C-alpha cells in the first residue's frame, strides 16, 4: 500500500487509466469479433459494413496508446485482407 500522498495519487490515476484502457480495448475486440463473425457467416455485405465500423475504432485505440500504433495498423491490414479475399472469392 502507498505511504506517501503522491504515491496514493499515482495509485488512483493508475486505476482510472487501467479501467479506461480496458474499456477501449474491449470495444476494439468487440468490433473485431463482429467482423470475424460476418466473415464466418460468409456475408460479404455484413463483413464490409463491420470492417468500416471497426477501422476507426482500431485506429483510435492505437492513437490513444492503449495498443501500439503499428499493432493497430497490422490489425486493420489483416482484417481488410481477409474481407477482400472473401470478396474476390464470391
Characterization of the model:
The structure is a single chain. The protein has one domain: Methane Monooxygenase Hydroxylase, Chain G, domain 1 (Up-down Bundle). It is 87% helix and 0% strand. It is built from three helices and no strands. It is elongated and about 65 Å long.
Sequence-ordered SSE layout with sheet pairings:
Layout: H1 5-41, H2 44-63, H3 69-89
Which short descriptors sum up this protein?
90 residues, mainly alpha, Methane Monooxygenase Hydroxylase, Chain G, domain 1, 3 helices
Brief overview:
This protein has 90 residues and is an all-alpha fold. The protein has helices at 5-41, 44-63, 69-89.
The CATH class assignment is: Mainly Alpha
What's the quaternary structure here? Answer: single chain
Proportion of residues in β-strands: under 5%
Helix content, binned percent: over 70%
SSE ordering:
HHH
Q: What class do helices, strands and sheet pairing give?
A: mainly alpha
Taking the sheet with the most strands, its summary is:
none
Give me the Rg, rounded.
Answer: 18 Å
- Which fold name is given in CATH as the topology? Methane Monooxygenase Hydroxylase, Chain G, domain 1
The total tally of domains equals 1
Overall shape = elongated
The low-confidence runs, each spanning 5 or more residues with pLDDT under 50, are none
Amino acid at each position: 500500500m502507498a505511504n506517501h500522498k503522491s504515491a496514493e495519487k499515482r495509485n488512483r490515476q493508475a486505476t482510472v487509466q487501467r479501467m479506461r484502457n480496458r474499456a477501449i480495448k474491449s470495444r476494439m475486440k468487440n468490433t473485431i469479433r463482429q467482423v470475424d463473425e460476418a466473415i464466418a457467416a460468409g456475408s460479404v455485405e455484413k463483413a464490409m459494413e463491420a470492417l468500416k465500423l471497426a477501422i476507426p475504432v482500431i485506429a483510435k485505440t492505437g492513437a490513444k496508446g492503449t495498443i501500439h500504433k503499428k499493432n493497430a495498423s497490422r490489425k486493420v491490414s489483416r482484417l481488410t485482407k481477409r474481407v477482400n479475399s472473401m470478396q474476390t472469392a464470391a
